[in-house]
TrEMBL record:
Keyword Metal-binding: yes
Gene Ontology MF terms: metal ion binding; oxidoreductase activity
Keyword vocabulary terms for this entry: Iron, Metal-binding, Oxidoreductase
Highest taxon of source: Eukaryota
InterPro entries (UniProt xref): PCO/ADO (IPR012864), RmlC-like_jellyroll (IPR014710), RmlC_Cupin_sf (IPR011051)
Source organism of the structure: Cirrhinus mrigala (Mrigala)
Protein name per Swiss-Prot or TrEMBL: 2-aminoethanethiol dioxygenase
PANTHER family: 2-AMINOETHANETHIOL DIOXYGENASE (PTHR22966)
Upper taxonomic lineage: Eukaryota, Metazoa, Chordata, Craniata, Vertebrata
Amino acid sequence: NNKTSLIQKVASQAYVTFTNCSSSAIGDNKTFLEQQTELVTLVSDIRAADLKIAPPKKVSISSQPSSAVPPVTYMHICETDVFSMGVFLLKTGASIPLHDHPGMNGMLKVLYGKVNIRCYDKLDKAESETERQFDPPLLPFQRDDVRRAMLRSFGQFSHQSGPCILTPLKDNLHEIDAVDGPAAFLDILAPPYDPDNGRDCHYYKVLQTAGKKSEQSDEDETWLLEIPQPDDFWCGGEPYPGPDVSV
């Protein structure tokens, strides 16, 4: 049906792609990979105009946002047991701190502006994990919240870029920074966050190892500390103005 909106086609394909897929099956599941390729093709074509959103008009210096204005807002498009989909809008200079997506797949497509995305993979715990020294030193209660990780990728994305993809095991942790102005991106997560089923969002910071400033290996191994949600980050909501979506 040529009258079906592109975002509706994306939602329908996301539902097909992620229904009955498990993290253990992904990677060698030919059907999943074929469905995911189709989803990537559709998502790659999405533009801000398809969702009836546009970059905010420039504001004067006298009307700069105050500390009461959330740095990031979210437009909810749809959610099922299989996936959730919405748009994140980042104000100039805003960041979404390093966070994880436990057991989840995801896809992120920039609609306007530019963002830097830094992705990490968690690594298995090492026996020396509790013996490693950090600068500044960790407090005793923080030791259990340290994890080895690997910097998987770092890149800048614009509306001309293809989607950034995460899986339960690869590129699963990421931080997103708006570059040179406001930015917005379409976000698909499968399955959605669900704290009751172990899919809660956790925040992290990268630790500096004591001693040499660059102790990272060739694989860019690093260390992350789980932290509470940063005080300077919170997310507001605003209405989604685009075509209706039903799944």
